[in-house]
Amino acid sequence: MTYDAAALQIVNISLSCDDGAGCDYLRIASAGIPVLRTMLGADMDAYGHLVFVLPSALECPWNVAAVSPGNVAWYRPNGSGILNTGTVMQGLLSTCPSAPELLRLGWATPLAVLNGSNLPEDGAYKSYRLPATYLTGDGVVLRIVPDWLGSAYTR
């Protein structure tokens, strides 16, 4: 995933804390979007997404918040928030990619690759412990390659 840096615009805005919005991201947007519209005017409509990076002093219980469907995301300014590519993608997509989606994006690795030669036989089983994808991208999915399909399998 890449971003066109020339298409990004960073704008610093100050919002009053008097309204008690705190970590209420919808109230932050309600206060922030009119300020942005005043600063950017009609140019604001050219942007597909709005991203609010909150002050570090604001201790929110989340690293990213987004409404789905939507084009606005709110991030904390730390390694688990705006500085984490996976978190940024989650906010922009308004969803968290599943383990198979992370694998396909190249952001995760399989714990094991199973095929016709190493799948347990009928009636047998083997257990695997997969970590949570929010903790790591390493070993978060089992990949099954159906090599018994021969040339019919093309992925």
Automatic annotation (TrEMBL):
Residues 3-92, 95-152 form the Peptidase M11 gametolysin domain. InterPro entries: Peptidase_M11 (IPR008752). This is Peptidase M11 gametolysin domain-containing protein. It comes from the Eukaryota.
